[in-house]
Amino acid sequence: MYRRRLGGFWERQHTAGNTDSIVRCFMNTNSLFHRFLFLLVFLLPRPVGIDCCENMILRDAAFQEKRDIHRLCVMANHEDEEAWKRFADLETWFQNNGEDLNIELLRVEADQPEMTWREYGIPSAPPSLPVTVFAGHYNFDNSSFYIQHWEPGPADEDLEAIRSSPAREQIRQKIGENLAIILYAPGNDDSSPVEKILESVLTDWNQKEPFPLDVIRVDRADVRERILLSFTGIQSTDLDWLGIVFGHGTLISPPLQGEEITEDNLYQQLTTLTLDCSCLQSPSSLGVDLPMVWNEENKSQIIFRGPAKPAANDPIMAILAEEANQGTTKRVFWLATVWSFTFLVTIVILAAFFIILHNRKFKNI
Questions:
Q1: pLDDT tier at 159 (50, 70, 90 boundaries)?
Q2: What is the rounded distance in angstroms from the CA atom of residue 312 to the CA atom of residue 106?
Q3: What is the pTM of this model?
Q4: Gyration radius of the chain's alpha carbons
Q5: Taking the domains of the chain in order of start, what are their residue ranges?
Q6: DSSP structure string for 267-290
């Protein structure tokens, strides 16, 4: 698989060769202590998606986290010259239009025996080649998901839809001065109460909180929004759909649909963003980043709120904050527990290995 990160460099992955090099490095290390350190660095488990942050609310901390990098993959056999030409054309397009976009361009060789298709959001090899697959990637749990595909590749209007859309353009222009953006796609029910719910929540929130909210409506019929509709899952439902976006484009999961859209549920998700950030409660645990341009101009428009707690004279907001805190902590508790247990087991194994090697050294003296 060949890989090009925007502004990056060519990278050819040789899994077997890397493993051989690691083994040779280990076997050629004469110092027992160096071997121990080598194993400690190489085998020590690392937490995925957990970053520590202090003295910031989750909303503020989100602007400082790394973005999820999604993948546009040209899939074909290695000798497919048409696919290589298409890859080169896409590379040129990204160089001219993909600056500050959280997408990487990949050339995936479908005839490689060690291919893991789920890494690209699909369960198995595509039924026909060549094909270009747009796959999302969530850093927090290292998972991938399917967004869209084209045979053999995207047209110019498709590339522009990947890069931006009216809704995403409004998000990146407004997000820096708001606590969050409420992304709303109306359904087919003309009697839906969602408009009244939104009006009530926005009025109440903006009167009590120092950071305002804003609403952006997504037009399901706008072809320019087709990538956003597919990415968020809006296109798969006729129900009212509502998602909260914060930071540099993070969409809180799960979004609310149909009868799930209530004032209480909306308040709970919004209040989560005002909680203090910590190692067990990070912005990346809340959802995945939208594919979106995010540049220095957008960064300069960020207004940081700083640490804050719900108003002492507002018991309802205090209760909602506590519920949000418990819900968010549970989402990452399992990850922290598994990592801690794995860490302890690894230490025990390494200690036993070190003792065995140490004893062998004395026996040989």
A1: very high
A2: 52
A3: 0.73
A4: 24
A5: 2-6+68-163
A6: HHHHHHTTSBPBTTB-GGGTEEEP
